[in-house]
Amino acid sequence: MSPSKESDELIFFVNGKKVTERNADPEVNLLFYLRKVIRLTGTKYGCGGGDCGACTVMISRYDPISKRISHFSATACLVPICSLHGAAVTTVEGIGSTKTRIHPVQERIAKGHGTQCGFCTPGMVMSIYTLLRNHPEPSTEQIMETLGGNLCRCTGYRPIVESAKSFCPSSTCCQMNGEGKCCLDEEKNEPERKNSVCTKLYEKKEFQPLDPTQELIFPPELMVCSGLFGFMMLAREGTHPPACPQLCLCFYLLLWVTLYYVALQSIHSF
Ligand code: FES
Ligand code: FES
């Protein structure tokens, strides 16, 4: 394939699979692309304007300068696919399924009665999932903030928030104070217990634990491409080559290859 053709390619990953689009339409958004082009219909179309959060997915990027992978949630209806070059997209299908194994977030929302019609559930799941990728032991405040952009029209927010709070190491909710016991079941609350109903939503010990080692890894191919791009940026910014002679040799070799490649692309684009 000629370099000029390669430069027209939009490359990103969806749930660990490489997607290559030649001559991508800049007006197409990620939600349309997921649902109509690659037929991943788990991501829902609600408002189409970034308000309801039903279309939430996780987008990951590798920063070659800091060598860190960042994960952030995004409403797919507002993301043009052309902005995704070099990114990895994770949808609700990518984190777990009833055919293989459901993810702890999916399990806890289901067992915690956090879903009725289920329309908002994929978006809720992906918002919580993204939070857990960044903070495996989130605080209650982080959970409230992360769900701030997701609307639910039928369940009510309590079971959804309570399900998510089961990932907190400590919680303000009595049923999740470490032992999975409800305060209404304790002896000291005997008088209140007679007049009250235990509002416990689930047994925490039934849940599978969150295991961050089981998550999808960032595609290594994208790390290599981003690394090359970062190298070009360093070279452009006049960063000094490394002091070690071997590294210095690699630096100039890579710089030469990169400049040669860029020059070839410029010639072909005329
Ligand atoms: S469909 Fe409502 S935020 Fe995207
Ligand atoms: S469960 Fe129906 S919209 Fe949330």
From TrEMBL:
Domain 2Fe-2S ferredoxin-type, first and last residues per copy: 8-95
Transmembrane domains' residue ranges: 247-267
Enzyme Commission number, as recorded: 1.2.3.1
Organism superkingdom: Eukaryota
MF annotations from Gene Ontology: 2 iron, 2 sulfur cluster binding; aldehyde oxidase activity; iron ion binding
Pfam families (alphabetical): Fer2, Fer2_2
Catalytic reactions of this protein: an aldehyde + O2 + H2O = a carboxylate + H2O2 + H(+)
Entry keywords, A to Z: 2Fe-2S, Iron, Iron-sulfur, Membrane, Metal-binding, Oxidoreductase, Transmembrane, Transmembrane helix
Name of the protein in its database record: aldehyde oxidase
The species this protein was found in: Mus musculus (Mouse)
